[in-house]
Amino acid sequence: MKKYRLGKLNPDVLEKPVEVQPFDYVRREPLKRLNFILGFIKKNNPDSIEKFVSNLTEKYKTMVKEDLVSKREIDLNEVFEDYKLLKKYTELSKLSLNYFLQLNQIPGSTDWKKEKIKVPNRNHLLSFLHPRYYNLLTLIETIGREEAIKLYKQYITHYYIEAKKTRENNYPDIKTLFEKRIEPKEVPSDWVIVTGLINEGKYAYKNENCMWVDVLEDLPDPELKYYICCYGDYESAKFHNENFILTMEHTIAQGDPYCSRVIHDTRIDYDLRHPPKDFWDKFKP
Length: 285
Prior knowledge:
The chain is an alpha+beta fold. It contains 14 helices and 7 strands. Helix 3 (49-63) crosses helix 8 and helix 7 packs antiparallel against helix 8.
C-alpha cells in the first residue's frame, strides 16, 4: 500500500487570518446548533429543558463582557428568523450572539450582515467550538454526566442526519474519494494527514495534528473535547456516500499522538475491524 503525507505543519496556524461572513456564519453554525439542541432536549428530556436553559444562560453571563447586540442595535428577529426556540429563549440566544461577536472581535464599523471580514483562526475556531463545549458541559451539570453524554451523542447524530437530507452522495466509491484527497494542492492544507488506500473498500488516514484541540488547550475535560470535535465525524462520513462507515479509535482530543481513521464501503467489505495500534504507529510514507 502506497502512503502519502498531505498538508504541512504551520506553527502559526491559530494566528492565520481566515475570511468569514459573520451574519451567515453565526446563523448556520453556533445559533443553528443551539436551536437544534434546545429542540432535541425539549423532545427527548422535556423535564430538563428549562433548567438547561437557565444554567446555560448563567454560564454565558459569566463570559460575555459587553452587550454588543444592544450597542449595535442588531435586529434579533432577523438573526433568529426560522429559529423558533431562539426566539422563545431570547436572553440565552442574545448572550450566545454576544459571545460570538466578542470572540471574533468584529469592528463596530463593519456591516456584519453583508461584509466579509478576516479574523484570526483562533477566534474563528473558538466561536464555534466553545459553544459546543459549554452546551455539553451545561447538559452534564443539568442531568448528570452519563445521561448527558448519552443524550448529546444522540443529538449530534440526529443533527447530521438532518443535514444529510439536503445532500447527495458526493463520491461513488472509496477510490474516487481517496484520489480526490491526494490531488496536489496549490496551497498545502494546515492539517497534516498520512493516508493510504488499503483496498477498494477501505481508505485509511491518520491525522498528525489537530488545530481544534490545540485551540481548546485551556479547557480541562478531554472526553468533552472528543465529543465536540470528533463524534460528529461518524455520521458526517456518510456525506461522502450513504454506504460509507467511519471507524476511529485513537484521537488527539483524548490524548493520543494521532487520530486513526478508516472509511469503509459496506457494499464491498463489511469487515469494520479497525487496524491495531501497531499498524498506525508504522503508518508512514
